[in-house]
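ok, trying the design again with the full structure, not the truncated one.
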């Protein structure tokens, strides 16, 4: 009703604001005027209430996490497939298991984590997954994660950069490798939807360094990640291309975990949905070529008859 959104009582011309305010009070008993918080109290003006404007890319638990943050009241999150969920232990956040997907929603400003039960029993593993969350944010796979010692090897995809990091017990985190992946192409409309303003591509690129460094916060992209950890050697492929070849690691034991975390580039939203689809975790049998143990798999494997 009011152009522009969120402007009444804020930066709108005072004469325009006064006319709008008078008509709103005559026609309505309340007015949700500003985007922001889901919770309004008795102290708030009935004509200057706040609302949550859910983004198109939010999953169900993202909205529920936002409501819980704003109201400070516990909510019940959507879990999905209970059989798949039973194989994982939640360490933070909320997870929804679909047919072939795991959507891991982080708590506000913190990390959402899942730990694959009993995965610490297997030293050598092969992990593959499609990472389909928004480009601006962190989606991480942990290998040999020792929760007691807080030691691990992890591969994180954040803002289109792939990083390999290692932390040994009692030592600081070390970056072993970093690579910027192939460019992600997006349309000017992607930023228009994000900012509710229409920009040309030239305007978008010209203003990117000042307003929005990196990619728009609302675009997603799929990356196929395949990891093989054998002994002290780690090999990683992204979209069928080897990006880390036989990297030596010191971490010797621990299990598999997934993590989601928001990026500080997204100044409007500190909740993030990491999306892992077609996840496969297998452990080759020691000394028995061709034999392996399936620790977890949610990828489609054929027609159901």
């Amino acid at each position: 009703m009011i152009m522009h959104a969120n402007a009444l009582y804020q930066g709108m011309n005072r004469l325009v604001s006064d006319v709008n305010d008078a008509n709103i009070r005559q026609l309505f008993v309340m007015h949700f005027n500003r985007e922001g918080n889901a919770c309004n109290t008795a102290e708030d003006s009935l004509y200057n209430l706040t609302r949550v404007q859910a983004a198109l890319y939010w999953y169900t638990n993202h909205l529920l996490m936002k409501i819980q943050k704003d109201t400070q009241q516990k909510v019940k999150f959507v879990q999905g497939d209970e059989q798949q969920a039973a194989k994982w232990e939640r360490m933070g956040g909320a997870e929804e298991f679909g047919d072939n997907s795991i959507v891991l929603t982080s708590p506000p400003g913190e990390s959402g984590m899942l730990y694959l039960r009993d995965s610490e029993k297997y030293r050598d593993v092969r992990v593959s997954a499609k990472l389909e969350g928004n480009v601006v944010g962190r989606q991480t796979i942990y290998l040999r994660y020792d929760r007691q010692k807080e030691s691990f090897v992890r591969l994180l995809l954040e803002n289109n950069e792939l990083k390999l990091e290692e932390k040994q017990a009692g030592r600081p985190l070390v970056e072993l490798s970093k690579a910027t992946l192939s460019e992600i192409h997006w349309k000017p409309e992607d930023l228009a939807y994000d900012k509710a303003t229409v920009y040309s591509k030239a305007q978008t690129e010209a203003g990117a360094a000042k307003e929005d460094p990196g990619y728009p916060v609302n675009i997603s992209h799929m990356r196929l990640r395949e990891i093989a950890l054998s002994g002290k050697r780690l090999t990683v492929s992204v979209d069928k291309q080897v990006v880390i070849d036989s990297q030596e690691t010191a971490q010797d034991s621990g299990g598999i975990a997934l993590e989601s975390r928001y990026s500080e580039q997204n100044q409007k939203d500190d909740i993030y949905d990491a999306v892992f689809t077609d996840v496969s975790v297998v452990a080759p049998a020691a000394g028995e070529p061709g034999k392996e143990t399936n620790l977890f798999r949610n990828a489609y494997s054929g027609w159901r008859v």
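Keeping the full-length input from now on. The mean pLDDT is 88.
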